[in-house]
TrEMBL record:
Domain Copper acquisition factor BIM1-like as annotated: residue spans: 17-201
Localization: Cell membrane
Residues in coiled coil: none
The protein's name: Copper acquisition factor BIM1-like domain-containing protein
GO CC annotation: plasma membrane; side of membrane
């Protein structure tokens, strides 16, 4: 089973559940500062606002980096990944820490090199179910994530894919992948294969999908599914299950 290799710094964890973007390449490892990392004092500094200037041009994230909008405390990458101009694969590992037997995902895009607006939805919100509420192996891959509506980039344009995982307690985890659009079939686009884009199927790492819908009445028998979600969610879920490489 493929598992993204990353070195973790020993720490007193104050935050549950973290996310890894497997494909395209993410901005960088923002798991290693998951909570307080002091070996002598595990307490949060009084007055902390989630990011602390530690001196020597360094910053601390006492609650963990991935809680920080818009990209989990990571700056824009100078090493961008080429990504198809018509849309492409996004592969995610959601269960690095406990607390993700259920979660909701948003996949958005910010335009240009330094996006200020990440509200351009690439897919409707969807929900996943993990095999347990403890840390688990498991990957899901969406092999063809489309571009936001009414957006037509040019080859060579830069953009950022933002992945938001909404934890069970309501907090959001942020990660980003910086991309440069390339022609479909460009050999410089990293290959999508069975090591970086697959859906885990073993009992201890299987990830399921669920629709997220709205209702117009509190009456149990009067549930009405949002028509956009009703059309797009099944298509997305079928696309997700299309990749069956083992």
């Amino acid at each position: 089973m493929f598992r993204f290799a990353v070195s973790l710094v020993a720490c007193a964890s104050l935050a549950a559940a973290h996310t890894v973007i497997v494909y395209p390449g993410w901005r960088g490892n923002n798991i290693h500062t998951n909570g307080t990392i002091s070996s002598t004092d595990a307490h949060i500094k009084p007055g902390s606002i989630g990011i602390n200037y530690e001196g020597n041009d360094t910053y601390g994230f006492p609650y963990g980096m991935q809680w920080m909008y818009p990209c989990g405390g990571m700056p824009t990458s100078t090493n961008r990944t080429k990504w198809p101009i018509s849309g492409g694969a996004v592969s995610i590992q959601p269960g690095w820490f406990p607390g993700h037997s259920n979660a909701q995902f948003y996949i958005n895009m910010g335009y240009e090199t330094e996006p200020l607006n990440y509200s351009h939805a690439m897919l409707p919100v969807f929900s996943i179910t993990g095999p347990s509420n403890t840390q688990y192996n498991g990957t899901f891959c969406l092999p063809q994530v489309p571009l936001p509506a009414n957006y037509t980039p040019k080859v060579g344009d830069n953009a950022t894919i933002q992945v938001i995982e909404l934890a069970q307690h309501g907090a959001s985890l942020y990660n980003c992948a910086d991309i440069t659009f390339a022609e479909n079939g460009d050999p410089d686009i990293p290959q999508v294969n069975n090591t970086n884009c697959f859906n885990s199927s073993n009992q201890d790492d299987h990830i399921g999908f669920q629709m997220v819908y709205t209702t117009t009445s509190p009456a149990p028998l009067a549930v009405q599914v949002n028509p956009i979600v009703a059309v797009l969610a099944p298509v997305m879920l079928m696309a997700a299950s299309w990749v069956t490489w083992v």
